[in-house]
Design goal:
Helix content is about 25%, strand content about 20%. The protein is of the alpha+beta class and about 350 residues long. β13 and β14 form a beta hairpin. The protein is elongated, with a radius of gyration of 23 Å.
């Protein structure tokens, strides 16, 4: 039996169900998931820029936003503090992982706004509007810890937050490194040359894009998305919320998008119905014709012995399933399909091809 190859015709709507299964609906409706590499990067950049319809002001807008989006999911009286951790009996304010959400100021022991992409490292400086007031990038942080970080570059490490004065480097901590990576990738897409990863992190440039650092892709893979990240991403997207921007961070929605763009280690894939982490690109073995069809029937042609063919409509509903379909001369006619837009999924074991088909 010939090997069944997996095509990268990704579903753009309909079968998109919910987080952890498919893209957030309807934010990504109509997006072309066939794209890879720099084409995918540019398309996502356009998406998150065009949907950033509400520009927050740094004061008081960002303060108010962080009191909502940075809430601790386990105790909504507190905000989570980026770089913080639970130190045990020798706790001090600097090390705390959480803080009273109303304890915000510039005073030691309180929390303030940390620029994950350090303001002064922007080219030019991020300022306190536009990129400098983007709530996807700003996080609640202990005042002293924020001052310690300053504009130190992110660098490799392990365990809790650590930094080196001589090397001007900063490790955000195991719990936060994925958050940091996904924020920096968002900033690069949204603001381009003003927020290059090479300016804010220490590592080797990727062959696929000399502006991207391998360290960030590793962090993105090592530290999966948390409920906290999901909560803030969902709030920031919904313009019915007072301090929402209207856009999303796509790397929170699916860290695997970074792998699709830049390569590197396989990151968490939150849309397994759409993307597989091990993909093949030969689609010549299976064809569906005519497409579009005007006769309410199509022909599936393949040299592969299929286990099943499943047909889904744009609402993600399976309208037809053929187990062990029988082919004649490598061709099978499927009849009586109502007019519409469909996804044909042809399976052999755990491998499959998905193709889009239009019936007029």
């Amino acid at each position: 039996m010939n090997k069944l190859f997996i095509t990268l015709i990704y579903l753009t709507t309909g079968i998109l169900l919910a987080q952890n299964g498919a893209p957030a609906n309807p934010y990504y409706n109509g997006f072309n998931w066939n794209l890879t590499g720099m084409n995918l990067k540019d398309a996502l950049a356009t998406k998150i820029t065009n949907t950033h319809t509400n520009q927050l002001v740094y004061t008081p807008g960002v303060w108010n936003a962080l009191k909502i989006v940075d809430l601790d999911p386990t105790n909504t009286a507190n905000v989570l503090l980026v770089y913080g951790w639970e130190p045990g009996l020798d706790a001090d304010a600097t090390n705390d992982r959480t803080r009273d959400k109303n304890a915000n100021s510039g005073t030691n022991g309180d929390w303030n706004r940390e620029h994950i992409y350090a303001q002064s490292l922007g080219t030019p400086d991020l300022g306190q509007s536009g990129p400098g007031a983007d709530a996807h990038m700003l996080r609640a942080c202990d005042v002293q810890r924020n001052a310690n970080r300053g504009n130190r570059l992110y660098a490799s490490g392990s365990g809790a937050v650590s930094y080196s004065i001589g090397a001007n480097s900063w490790y955000p901590g195991d719990e936060w490194k994925g958050d940091v990576a996904r924020i920096l990738m968002y900033m690069y897409l949204h603001y381009g040359a003003q927020c290059l990863p090479t300016t804010v992190a220490v590592g080797s440039p990727m062959a696929s894009d000399s502006n991207m650092i391998d360290l960030l892709l590793q962090w993105n893979a090592d530290d999966p998305v948390s409920q906290y990240e999901d909560n803030r991403n969902t709030y920031m997207n919904n313009t019915n919320n007072t301090f929402a921007q209207g856009n999303r961070n796509p790397f929170i929605d699916n860290p695997y998008l970074a792998t699709r763009i830049w390569g590197g280690p396989n990151a968490q894939n939150r849309w397994p119905n759409l993307f597989l982490s091990n993909e093949f690109f030969d689609t010549t073995d299976i064809g569906i014709f005519p497409n579009p069809s005007t006769t309410h029937s199509v022909y599936v042609q393949t040299n592969t012995t299929l286990d099943r063919i499943a047909v889904y409509n744009v609402n993600g509903q399976e309208i037809m399933r053929l187990e062990q379909p029988s082919f004649s001369n490598n061709t099978l006619e499927i009849k009586d399909i109502p007019s519409g837009f469909y996804f044909f999924k042809m399976e052999v074991g755990s491998e499959y091809v998905t193709q889009t088909v239009i019936l007029k």
